[in-house]
Structures are given as C-alpha cells and as structure tokens.
TrEMBL record:
The chain crosses the membrane at residues 20-47, 59-79, 99-120, 141-162, 182-212, 233-260, 272-295. It comes from Pygocentrus nattereri (Red-bellied piranha). This is G-protein coupled receptors family 1 profile domain-containing protein. It comes from the Eukaryota. SMART domains: 7TM_GPCR_Srsx (SM01381). PROSITE patterns: G_PROTEIN_RECEP_F1_1, G_PROTEIN_RECEP_F1_2. Residues 41-292 form the G-protein coupled receptors family 1 profile domain. InterPro entries: GPCR_Rhodpsn, GPCR_Rhodpsn_7TM, Mel_1A/1B_rcpt, Melatonin_rcpt. Belongs to the G-protein coupled receptor 1 family. Gene3D superfamilies: Rhodopsin 7-helix transmembrane proteins. PANTHER family: B2 BRADYKININ RECEPTOR/ANGIOTENSIN II RECEPTOR, MELATONIN RECEPTOR TYPE 1B. High affinity receptor for melatonin. The activity of this receptor is mediated by pertussis toxin sensitive G proteins that inhibits adenylate cyclase activity. Residues 321-346 are annotated as: Disordered.
Length: 346
C-alpha cells in the first residue's frame, strides 16, 4: 500500500471513532436530505430555464451555471462523505480523496463566482441599463460564463500543487486543510470569499440606493426605472447571496483565525463548531432552488408544471416544445417584457 494512502487511512482512526452513533446518524440524515433536495431542486432550475422561453436570457445563464456548481458536490463528494460516515473512516484511496476535494472546491468557488456574476449582471441591468445590451449579448455572456469557470479552475489548481486537499476525520470529507499553509489559507479566504462578497455587496448596495430613490421620489423628474418584477427578481438573488454568506461565513472566519497561528489556534477550535460550520456550508448547496421556488412566481409555476408533467411524459414533451409561449401570452402587456431585449430574469 502506498505511504500516502496509508497516512490517509490512519487519520480516519482519530476523531470519528469516539463520536456518538446518534451524532453520526444526524449528520448522515442532514447530508442525505441536502443531497436529495440539491439534485431535485437544481434539476428543476435547469429544466425550467430550458423549457420556458421567458426564462432563457443572459441573466439566467449564470443561474443555470450556479445550479450546475451546486450539483457538482452531489455527483461524487457527498456520496463518499456518506460512505466515510457509515464506515467510520475513509476507505477509498488517495486519488479518490484528491478528486473529491477538487470537485468540492470547484463547487464552492464556482458558486461564489457565479453569485458574483449574477450580482454584476443585476447591477448592469438595473443601474447601467444603457450598457447592458452591449455587455450581455450572446458573445459577451458566453465569454463571461467561460471566464467564471476559468477563474474557478485557476483558483482551485494550487491546492493540488500544495497538497492541501486531505481527509479530515472531523467532517468525514476530503477537503481543504486550513493548517496546510497560513499564507495560502488567508489568500483562499480573501480571494474566494471576502473579495467576491465585497463586489456583490457593492452591486446590491447600488441597486438598493436606486430602489430607495424611486420609492421616495427624491426629485420630480426621477423616472421609475425599476419595474415591480425587476425588484422581485433582485430580491430573490439578494436572498441567495445572503444565505450563501451566512452559511459560509463561519467556516471562513474559522479559517482566518487558524491562519493567524495554526499550531496554537487550530486546537482551540471546538470540534462541534468546526463540524457545524462545515455542514452549514454543505447545506447551502440545496437552498438556491428552494429560494427561487418560494420567491419567484415564474419558477414556482414552472416547478409545478414540471412535477405534474412527470406523471404524464407525453404532456411533459408537449410542454417543453411549446417553451412557455402560451404562459407568456396569458400575462397582461404591462407585466410582459418577453419581447423586449432585456427579457425578464429571476
């Protein structure tokens, strides 16, 4: 057996063995629930955009990309995490550990970069309307989407060179080790979390300023540039951003604290706090699709139609071919901007 694999397996004998069975059961239940909702919810998001022409636009390209990022963790890492829980340790080899950690990191970084891209899109759509069509044409949107995933790959690749993707028995996962390098941990938290959060916060603050100006009618010549539907869509994506920040902030703050002095601070972090912060982060992968369904009427209606159509496959195919055209025609002219260049987004 290679030495590195042996070391990975030896580490599995540390914390999990002493963990009560009911704790492992709870963690496994949370992970299973998260995985099921993740798969069903994000599949509904992708199918909704593909089926409904009203939802097929530049802004929702990044919504679909975000759904794909959330699905990455379900296709490989989460099943291995559940396997480690059931067997009280990591049984696969080192290669599987690296692949699992890589996909986990790609999902996390891809999610925050897509959330940032969505915020920039909303900012341009609402606050820079005159430039929106120039930036978010077919070519521009494709370039920006590719850029999101190129930056994601660039951000995750250093982990392979530094060997910072290792098995952590506390969370049964192959993941980024916060004690691998203090400087790199600070860089990860800054570039992968703090900087995107700052950009998103700036974009949404500018939108909020515009919203307040429109509502208060600061001057008599202020035109209500923000339609009610646009406001709802902005609020939906704002909630997505807030939930991401809340779910990932504890883990990133722990990482910053550990990076200050790894040998001294790392042992001071309570095991329960570290585990809770990790599973809060895991849980975030299933929330976005739920938010769309709760706050956005277009997605909620499309979810319902898809679920009902699944009982009748023929009806599902017919609805897909129509692409939501009939649903758009039923709306009143004042609420329907499907024919306009800046189609309605979520």
């Amino acid at each position: 057996m290679p030495e590195d694999v042996s070391l990975v397996r030896n580490r599995t004998e540390a914390a999990p063995g002493a963990r009560p069975a009911w704790v492992v059961t709870v963690l496994a239940a949370v992970l299973i629930f998260t995985s099921v909702v993740d798969v069903l919810g994000n599949a509904l998001v992708i199918i909704s955009v593909l089926r409904n022409r009203k939802l097929r636009n530049a802004g929702n390209v990044f919504v679909v990309s975000l759904a794909f990022a959330d699905l990455l963790v379900v296709c490989y890492p989460y099943p291995l995490v559940l396997h480690a829980m059931l067997h009280a340790g990591w049984l696969p080899g080192e290669m599987e550990c690296k692949v699992s950690g890589f996909l986990m990191g790609a999902s996390v970084i891809g999610s925050i970069f897509n959330i940032t891209a969505i915020a920039i899109n909303r900012y341009c759509f609402i606050c820079q309307a005159s430039r929106y069509e120039k930036v978010y044409g077919c070519t521009g949107t494709s370039v920006l989407l590719i850029l999101v995933w190129v930056l994601t790959a660039i951000a995750i690749l250093p982990n392979l060179a530094l060997g910072s993707l290792t098995y952590d028995p506390r969370v049964y996962s192959c993941t980024f080790s916060q004690t691998a390098s203090a400087g790199y941990t600070i860089a990860v938290v800054t570039v992968h979390f703090l900087l995107p959060i700052a950009v998103v916060t700036f974009c949404y603050l500018r939108i909020w300023v515009l919203v307040l100006q429109v509502r208060r009618r600061v001057t008599s010549d202020v035109r209500p540039r923000l339609r009610p539907s646009e406001l709802r869509h902005f609020l939906t994506m704002f909630v997505v951003f807030v939930l991401f920040a809340v779910c990932w902030a504890p883990l990133n703050l722990i990482g910053l604290a550990v990076a200050v002095d790894p040998p001294r601070v790392a042992p001071m972090v309570p095991d329960w706090l570290f585990v809770v912060s990790y599973f809060m982060a895991y849980f975030n992968s299933c929330l976005n699709a739920v938010v769309y369904g709760l706050l956005n009427q277009n997605f909620r209606r499309e979810y319902r139609r898809i679920l009902l159509s699944l009982c009748k496959p023929r009806l599902f195919l017919q609805e897909t071919s129509r692409g939501g055209t009939e649903r758009s025609n039923k709306q009143s002219p004042g609420n329907n901007n499907n024919d306009q260049p800046k189609a309605e987004t979520i």
